[in-house]
Amino acid sequence: MRAPVSHDELLAIERAAVAAWPALETADINGWLWRYSGGGSQRANSVSPLHFEGSDIDGALAAVEARYRARGAAAMFQICDVNVPTDLDQRLEQRGYRLQEPCTCLAKRIGPAAGACSDTNVEFAPAPSEDWLSVYLAGITVSRRCLAPKILARVPTPRTFLLFRDQGEPLATALCVAANGVAIAECVSTRADRRRTGAGSRIMRALEAWGSRHGASIAALQAVAANSAAQGLYAKLAYARVGSYHYRVLDP
User: Fold this and answer.
1) What is the pTM of this model?
2) In this predicted structure, what is the pLDDT of residue 1?
3) Which phi and psi angles does 251 have, rounded to 5°?
4) Mean pLDDT, the chain, as a whole number?
5) Could you tell me the CA-to-CA distances from 241 to 2, 10, 158 in Å, in that order?
6) Every domain of the chain and the residues it spans
7) Which residue of 89, 113, 179, 185 has the lowest C-beta tally within 10 Å?
8) Which superfamily, per CATH, for 108-244?
9) In sequence order, which ranges of the chain are alpha helices (DSSP H)?
10) How far is CA 134 from CA 51, 149, 159, 202, 221, in A?
11) Per-residue pLDDT tens digits for 4-42
12) What distance in Å separates the CA atoms of residue 79 and residue 250, rounded to the nearest whole number?
């Protein structure tokens, strides 16, 4: 079931998510945001088509494909519910792009009361510490580990890197970026040997509190649809599906 968010709110969520994970190289192709970074991050190596100017869709697609081809990379689009044009997914399918990794966009409304939440076990920092990186990098694929610190260094402000400790041990991480009334959660990870202990819930509540204090009325995140553990955690925290996205990839 989808939460009651408007089209404009969903667009704000998607734009905030794009800003929160900045690619190393970008280009404007008729309003589409072309992104390339190398490594294994799909978002940082795909086109975000939230805006389009002009009428030559085929020409823009050709330009996208030429740019990726010049980098020796497969052309990729991140397709969500507020793409422009609205039939872009169908156009890409007809062009031979295959569907990859369905994900959900989850959100909840947060009020001023959320900002009063305080957890002394959660640390807030403007940059990722070595302890923060030790937890987060251990939870992602090898292909993403070299690239992630470069992207994290480019994350816009206001931002905070959250680290949950238990008796001094770093157990869970998150990154929160506030933009246009939205608190976007990124890099939510719990150490493998300490999952299902409540660390993820505690760090998310602290994230919502920080977001509320920085003007956000909506907390949102994006999670792989097949990740049942993550989906279950966010459902318990009252996050509801407000949208979806997937990737379209043109194999060489």
Assistant:
1) 0.93
2) 42
3) -70, 145
4) 94
5) 5, 11, 25
6) 7-103+246-250, 108-244
7) 113
8) Gcn5-related N-acetyltransferase (GNAT) (3.40.630.30)
9) 7-20, 57-70, 88-94, 130-138, 142-145, 148-152, 199-213, 228-236
10) 37, 11, 19, 19, 22
11) 799 999 999 999 999 999 999 999 999 999 999 999 999
12) 13
Region of poorest pLDDT, from 128-142, 158-172, 193-207: 193-207
With residue 172 as reference, give the H or E element that holds it.
Answer: strand 169-179
Tens digit of pLDDT for each residue in 34-77? 999 999 999 999 999 999 998 999 999 999 999 999 999 999 99
Specify the DSSP class assigned to residue 139.
T
Please give the Cα distance from 28 to 49 (Å, whole number).
Answer: 10
Q: What single DSSP character describes residue 48?
A: B
Question: For residue 197, what pLDDT is reported?
Answer: 83
Write phi, then psi, for 195 (nearest 5 degrees): -75, 160
Instruction: Report the C-alpha dihedral over residues 142, 143, 149, 153, rounded to 10 degrees.
Output: -160
Query: For position 195, what pLDDT does the model report?
Result: 84
202 in helix, strand or coil?
Answer: helix
Distance separating the N- and C-terminal Cα atoms of the chain:
37
Residue-level pLDDT at 169: 95
Nearest to 248 by CA among 63, 58, 103, 128: 103
